[in-house]
């Protein structure tokens, strides 16, 4: 009936691109999904002793991605950034809902977008279980669900004085790619090629999140900038920290830039989707083993401290262990704010 | 730190309007929420033997509501339409996430919006547990969670031949109000006053959904038009139906209109947020008792049938029990399609 009123109406569109992708995944081992797409609600049937982790991210065209962004990469990234939040709690992905506003029904765009989306969904065994589709300015809103043994989620509030502070992978490359694409700076084509994937195609650290559940005291994913995000841990754990700027893990490409650019992009560039976590110092060996097992660098960048009389203070040290001055420090601690241009 | 970069930046905004509202509800009896707003994920701790119902709805300015819509009513409606989906499965609300794109930080708008949002959240004991806030064209994306004993969800697929078809409340008034506000028709001011709340301030039938869990064979909420939505039940249950047009429950205000308008708006007006459900005929007394207990009309509008050789056919009968002709019938069966103007 709907096809009579429009050659490719809302219901056909959902059916063709999203339900097909969801159905193709039914055979996966998602025992926790009692009912997927197609009813008023989806139904999750949690395993005994498991909690459900829930995260939501909204991506807006012109704000989080360029209007003409490659739709396949966009589909990948839209889900990946949500899986990154699940990873930061140590959760195993279960499924996700997608609500999407589309300016028009563009079959080629939708095909590419859903290809990217379901590539990540398949890779992490995280099927689409519901959502909404409407006309409107291009906006992608995903809510993702993960499973985690009761009481084992890694919260932001658990950092203890004396803990090491760790960062996974490398930081700053997504910001460097953005700077080049926005023509804020000149970057050789070969350098851009090296790092561009870090902006367009981030890897959610799902395996890492599950593995550090037993060793980390606090964790979060780095989306708005490493040091700005780290401060959420400090605030919620009511502790301070010392971070050594020169220990921030950077790519060879970023290391070709000036020290100021290196520090700025690594410290507060954002869009990294790495995990920053804290752990007691007696877990260093265990963490090094996890790093080896995953073939993923895990770098100690500083320590959790308690500044007498001052709460939740993040102190930045240069390579000689000397405190940075306030102005320099403030610039590096700034998180990305979506309402400030 | 964020307040240095902007007088009212993203984090302050979340804190001020949404986290405050969420915190105010912490004292409620939401034992299923292990962790609310403020970390990478929220954590639900389902009760033993309970499934989690999940639904997502996206509302776009200029499409689902007027740009200058009253923000308090908008906040109410944005959550209410999601609770309506939970109700249609028979689920008890647990909590919701809100992702919202805002063109600018408008404190007065946000205050009114969150007032309406939390009024509904409080009324149904359904706290905000997470979400996302960003700059962008005004778009509201909510995912709501409900709890339901395992296997007890009312699915669309359970209708059986011989079942009655029921509708709650009245239908068509939201469409009548829209027609008046769009100046498609002239409606006396006093009539508009009578019915406007049906468009701006729908009541999710949460209590009804939970009460009909034991009697209904299938259910859904009426959002895109009663008969169009009913066809989802027919499709998923692989049955047909006969519906008596003159039995569709209409307000006195709608009954002042021509018979054609009455039928069109009641049958396919949309935005009703009532529940359409099927139930065996031996449940009529039980359903009448539910109606009395909730002081909510529940009306039998037709029957589930099996048309030999024809699947999933919805036949419309006039008040003399005579079949409507195909053209008239097709017009009344049309659902709202968000991509057809």
Automatic annotation (TrEMBL), chains A, B:
The keyword Glycosyltransferase does not apply. Residues 162-308 form the PurM-like C-terminal domain. ATP binds at residues 131-132, 156, 223. Mg(2+) 1 binds at residues 56-57, 132. Mg(2+) 4 binds at residues 40, 55, 85. Keywords: ATP-binding, Kinase, Magnesium, Metal-binding, Nucleotide-binding, Thiamine biosynthesis, Transferase. Belongs to the thiamine-monophosphate kinase family. Reaction mechanism of ThiL seems to utilize a direct, inline transfer of the gamma-phosphate of ATP to TMP rather than a phosphorylated enzyme intermediate. This is Thiamine-monophosphate kinase. The gene is thiL.
């Amino acid at each position: 009936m709907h096809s009579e009123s429009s050659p490719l109406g809302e219901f056909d569109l959902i059916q063709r691109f999203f339900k097909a992708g969801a159905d193709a995944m039914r055979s996966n081992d998602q025992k926790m999904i009692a009912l997927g797409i197609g009813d008023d609600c989806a139904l999750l049937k949690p395993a005994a002793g498991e909690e459900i982790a829930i995260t939501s991210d909204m991506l807006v065209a012109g704000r989080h991605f360029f209007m003409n962004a490659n739709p396949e990469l966009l589909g990948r990234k839209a889900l990946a950034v949500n899986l990154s939040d699940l990873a930061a709690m140590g959760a195993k992905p279960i499924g996700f809902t997608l609500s999407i506003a589309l300016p028009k029904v563009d079959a080629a765009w939708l095909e590419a977008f859903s290809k990217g989306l379901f590539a990540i969904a398949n890779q992490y065994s995280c099927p689409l279980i519901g959502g909404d589709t409407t006309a409107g300015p291009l906006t992608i809103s995903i809510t993702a669900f993960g499973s985690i043994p009761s009481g084992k989620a890694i919260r932001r509030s658990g950092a203890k004085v004396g803990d090491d502070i760790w960062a996974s992978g490398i930081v700053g490359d997504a910001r460097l790619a953005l700077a080049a694409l926005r023509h804020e700076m000149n970057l050789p084509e070969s350098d851009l090629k090296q790092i561009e994937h870090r902006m367009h195609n981030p890897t959610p650290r799902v395996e890492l999140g599950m593995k550090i559940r037993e060793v980390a005291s606090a964790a979060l994913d780095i989306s708005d900038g490493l040091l700005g995000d780290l401060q959420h841990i400090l605030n919620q754990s009511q502790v301070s920290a010392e971070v050594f700027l020169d220990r921030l893990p950077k790519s060879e490409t970023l290391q070709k830039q000036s020290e100021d650019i290196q520090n700025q992009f690594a410290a507060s560039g954002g869009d990294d989707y790495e995990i920053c976590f804290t752990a007691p110092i007696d877990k260093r060996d265990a963490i090094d083993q996890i790093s080896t097992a995953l073939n993923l660098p895990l770098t100690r960048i500083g320590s959790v401290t308690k500044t007498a009389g001052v709460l939740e203070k993040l102190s930045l040290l240069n390579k000689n262990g000397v405190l940075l001055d306030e102005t320099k420090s403030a610039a590096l601690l700034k998180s990305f704010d979506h309402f400030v241009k």
